[in-house]
Amino acid sequence: MLAYIARRILLMIPTILGIMLISFVLVQFAPGGPVERIIAQLQGQDSGATSRISGGGGDVSGGGQSSVGAGDASTSRYRGAQGLDPQFIKQLEAQFGFDKPAHERFFKMLWDYARFDFGKSYFRDISVLELIKEKLPVSISLGLWMTLLSYAISIPLGIRKAIKDGSSFDIWTSAIVIIGYAIPGFLFAILLIVLFAGGSFWQIFPLRGLTSENWALMPWYMQIVDYFWHLVLPITAMALGAFATSTLLTKNSFLDEIRKQYVLTARMKGLSERQVLYGHVFRNAMLIVIAGFPGAFISAFFAGSLLIETIFSLDGLGLLSFESIVNRDYPVVFANLYIFSLLGLVVNLLSDLTYTWIDPRIDFETREA
């Protein structure tokens, strides 16, 4: 097993390199860039999606210590640069590191990232690592609690549906699950706001933020209550689709195992239905459910939370990544990509190791041999 773990860790290196290389090459052909964005701001032509890049304590020309992104030493490629001193354009390029060839910038980025040195944001006077740490609590809260809630409900419900397959309970719960899956999370979030956050009916839950303004003055037990009170609506909206998917996955997995020969043999030996279900079927049926955990967690932790963060005014990594892409803040974009790619690979490895913990008969080394 140690040899298998070592091989998987070594395979992470070319995987990360491939992800970063493809992303870096794509950025080279993407229109626009931080230099063009500054030129547009100076010419009064900036129409970026957000105006927050100038609100983070820096100015448009500060923080350019990372050498990633797209650029060209020739000022002629920058539209709208007419009337600006070419020397000033060259200074901007040198500040952002665009005066170096693309391959030098790429290898410098890899060397820095190997040491978890992500530089500083182009448009905020703060290091990328500090910026990510600042947004991390929101994303951890959404991803962790949504995943735990989804699995805590969907696994028992899926098992019950498998046992009651074809019954009225199975039919009406399936209808609810399918409807839940069909409703977009952001649309359900708006409905929850209208109903329970002072939209048109009741003012029960807070509308924005992860904690109240006077949270620091509360006793510790009220801080916990306030924290979860703010999470009720966004977690409910996020868990809807994941809850439906994992419920049907659990049910189908258990149905497939229940129909196998070893289950019939166990029943013939006189084992109770509970012993058969949780002593034999559960271990095998849960393997496919565990296989979907890494993707579900990463999705909830990053991509799946973007719209929810926006709707509930939660300043997390999903919103940060989106704004960074729009604003061409490449150090933040590539740092998020690197961290989440690495996190996804590690979680997938942990998922495989969990297989062997649940079912010791699984041996990845033998399978590879």
TrEMBL record:
<keyword id="KW-1133">Transmembrane helix</keyword>
<comment type="similarity">
    <text>Belongs to the binding-protein-dependent transport system permease family.</text>
</comment>
<dbReference type="GO" id="GO:0005886">
    <property type="term" value="C:plasma membrane"/>
</dbReference>
<feature type="transmembrane region" description="Helical">
    <location>
        <begin position="9"/>
        <end position="30"/>
    </location>
</feature>
<keyword id="KW-0813">Transport</keyword>
<dbReference type="Pfam" id="PF00528">
    <property type="entry name" value="BPD_transp_1"/>
</dbReference>
<feature type="transmembrane region" description="Helical">
    <location>
        <begin position="332"/>
        <end position="351"/>
    </location>
</feature>
<dbReference type="InterPro" id="IPR035906">
    <property type="entry name" value="MetI-like_sf"/>
</dbReference>
<feature type="transmembrane region" description="Helical">
    <location>
        <begin position="171"/>
        <end position="197"/>
    </location>
</feature>
<feature type="compositionally biased region" description="Gly residues">
    <location>
        <begin position="54"/>
        <end position="66"/>
    </location>
</feature>
<dbReference type="InterPro" id="IPR000515">
    <property type="entry name" value="MetI-like"/>
</dbReference>
<feature type="region of interest" description="Disordered">
    <location>
        <begin position="49"/>
        <end position="76"/>
    </location>
</feature>
<keyword id="KW-0812">Transmembrane</keyword>
<keyword id="KW-1003">Cell membrane</keyword>
<feature type="domain" description="ABC transmembrane type-1">
    <location>
        <begin position="136"/>
        <end position="351"/>
    </location>
</feature>
<dbReference type="GO" id="GO:0055085">
    <property type="term" value="P:transmembrane transport"/>
</dbReference>
<keyword id="KW-0472">Membrane</keyword>
<feature type="transmembrane region" description="Helical">
    <location>
        <begin position="138"/>
        <end position="159"/>
    </location>
</feature>
<feature type="transmembrane region" description="Helical">
    <location>
        <begin position="227"/>
        <end position="250"/>
    </location>
</feature>
<feature type="transmembrane region" description="Helical">
    <location>
        <begin position="285"/>
        <end position="312"/>
    </location>
</feature>
<dbReference type="GO" id="GO:0042884">
    <property type="term" value="P:microcin transport"/>
</dbReference>
<keyword id="KW-0997">Cell inner membrane</keyword>
<protein>
    <submittedName>
        <fullName>Microcin C transport system permease protein</fullName>
    </submittedName>
</protein>
